Amino acid sequence: MDKFRMMFQFLQSNQESFMNGICGIMALASAQMYSAFEFCCPCMPEYNYIYGIGLLCIPPIWFFMLGFVLNNNVSMLSEEWKRPTGKRNKDPVVLRYMFSSITQRSLIAPAVWVSVTLMDGKSFLCAFSVDLDLEQFGNSSEIHSLSDMEKLKLLAKIPCKDLFSQTEIRVAASRYIKCISQACGWLFLLIMTFMAFMIRAIRPCFTQAAFLKTKYWSHYIDIERKMFDETCKEHAKSFAKVCIHQYFESISGEIRRFHGRPNEEEEDEEEANKRRSDEDKLMGIRAQDDMNKVLWNWHSCKPPLALRKEEPDGQDNEKLMKEANGGPNGLANGHAPEVGKKEWAVYYSKV
Hints:
It is a single chain. This protein has helices at residues 2-13, 15-36, 48-70, 73-82, 92-106, 108-120, 122-128, 141-144, 148-156, 167-206, 208-259, 269-281, 288-300, 313-325. The protein is mainly alpha-helical and 351 residues long. It has two domains: 14-206, no CATH class; 207-261 and 274-282. It is elongated, with a radius of gyration of 39 Å. The termini are far apart. The relative contact order is 0.08. GO terms for molecular function: monoatomic cation channel activity. The chain crosses the membrane at residues 21-37, 49-70, 183-202.
């Protein structure tokens, strides 16, 4: 259990690296799924195009949505987008940065699936076999006597070895379409790589200050949420512990009074220290309604991002001494204190 807890804490502290690893695993999984997938073209004019294009587009959409589901920052982004403004303004630039970061990671697995599918060429062949002109690939004298509908049915059978009798024409047509599919695959990889280069390298060069600002505050929002969850977890643990202790103490007190037993010795110093530490973790919040109010206030009106400056104890004491004794010359308010004047009567004698 301790090993799993340590692993979970490590993943929480290295969430960005963990999400990059998840994206890499999803990319490898998409390629492995395609290699283990049994491709079965229907070889019918009505369904070839739908099956081929569907296999090329639907799994990437599923991988893209799965990337959003597995990313923990999606809930944080939604919460930041929908929360009331309160005392803290929402920065759309930070939200856009977070959304773009999530989207970039989620696009890795779909890009791998599309590139592997295009390199293999089976779905491309299944989708576009009905658009071929068989006269380019060999002797097609038998095809001229067929009607248009029969030609379409014959062309739809090219991806299927068992249904197309003319092996030479089928092999030539398959190689032609697979060559086009592989060219589209390399072009797709080139475009995706170029876009990734533009996003990752060129954007920070032009807007370095804005990039650093958005990156800093996106990290702050993530860390603040984690620390708030940890503080709530510690408070809930201490609240439950103190509540259970008080319950058992009240029950034991009633039992002792019922049986007329004398009170047991006071708890030792270690137990008392643990009790005080649990009491300190409650931070003065000792009722359910108070905790609900704290949580609601955190959601509806988060504290502003302007910290109060706290002076050290030495400066506080010096300030208090100055207020008590006066300014630097020791006089209150810079001048001598006012003292009530006394009247003196002086008598002179001539003797």
